[in-house]
Design a protein that fits this description.
It is built from seven helices and two strands, in the order αααααβααβ. With 155 residues, the protein is mainly alpha-helical. The protein starts with a helix and ends with a strand.
Amino acid sequence: MDNREAIGSWLAGPRAAAEEMGVDFGYRGERLGLPEEGPGSVARFGRRLGALFVDWALCVIVAYGLITRDGAHAVENWALAVFFVLSVLTVGTVGSTPGKRLFRLRVVAEGGGRLGIGRVVVRSVLLCLAIPALIWDRDGRGLHDRLARAVQVRS
């Protein structure tokens, strides 16, 4: 192995290096019993980010229009509170937020079905903290989903 190969494997990350050595990780969601593609498969990052952007924009509009009006400096704090309530109410009842619905995503329990209210609250609190959502496992789930035993899938 020359220096270029060593640097290339480092840049590609440990997963790419392990796959190059013959380790088979399978596809995202295989360990959870989900299909590789189509409805029910693990949602990709781009869709989840788009849904989050739509939900956050809605929450900022609600916070500015209904709560703060003149206090623009408090909008972000109120938007976070609105986001928490939106997440708990919509994911807890219909399994998706307006943004997730727009991007054809839903949140389900690991074994399928709807999340219980306790798990939805845990997931929402961790999502509002932001850092747990940035730590992913090899199935592409954030720490907030892992701890709530949930997975975001395509509808």
